[in-house]
Amino acid sequence: MPNRVVMATAASALLLTMTAAPATASPLPVPYWGHASQVITVIADSPTATTATFTAWQRTGGLWDHWQAVRGPITANVGSDGIGQASETTSKTPAGTWTLTEAFGIQANDGTRLPYRQVGTADWWVSDVKSPLYNTYYHCVPGTCPFNEGAGEDLGEAGPVYNHAVVIDYNRNPVVPGAGSAFFLHISSGKPTAGCVSIPAEDLKAVMAWLDPAQQPVIDIAVR
Q1: Domain L,D-TPase catalytic: where (predicted)?
Q2: Whole-angstrom Cα distance, residue 211 to residue 55?
């Protein structure tokens, strides 16, 4: 009888393990264990690569391996110093998984459900490491801002690359001075960026229309 109990317990444990384990490997190129139902992966072949493979994924079931590619793969431009530990003194795209909670653009919102701000030349992203406003949005007329404007980015002056953009929530909560600021998913100019991720305009338009704040979207940036 004791042996039968042990065998039954072992069989139950095996059944539980088989039930919990995924039947197939996740299609995502990097492991993701979070709650987001929308994940964008940006995967480079090396830490110094200035291009990466961009794919937008939709969770299609409750299990971790149930994902479907809805846009991509697309060739994205990343930082001119590659992907890794970002800072204010490098042009690296920050490695890690970051939420996508808001968007902006020089042009009007053309379909995203993310909170959207249309920007002009009085709209800034603060990169002054000595300012308490570091790595935040701020509205002020040029010449009147309460931070070093030379260390800020005038969003309205950036040109077509910022016609539409999504904020990558790196170093935003908490904000660490000097750890890097103003990281966005924006329209590609065909060249490496200062640390942002950029893709062609039509692809960005489609991705922004797909992003849904109710699905807690994230971007996962990594080296293969």
Answers
A1: 76-218
A2: 13
Q: 123 burial class (0-12, 13-18, 19+ CB within 10 angstroms)? A: buried
Does some domain include residue 212? yes
Q: Total structural domains in the chain?
A: 1
List per-residue pLDDT tens for the chain, 224 residues long.
Answer: 333 333 333 333 322 222 233 444 679 999 999 999 999 999 999 999 999 999 999 999 876 779 999 999 999 999 999 999 999 999 999 999 999 999 999 999 999 999 999 999 999 999 999 999 999 999 999 999 999 999 999 999 999 999 999 999 999 999 999 999 999 999 999 999 999 999 999 999 999 999 999 999 999 999 99
pTM of the model: 0.88
**Does residue 8 form part of some domain?**
no
Q: Where are the alpha helices (DSSP H) in the chain?
A: 2-20, 201-210
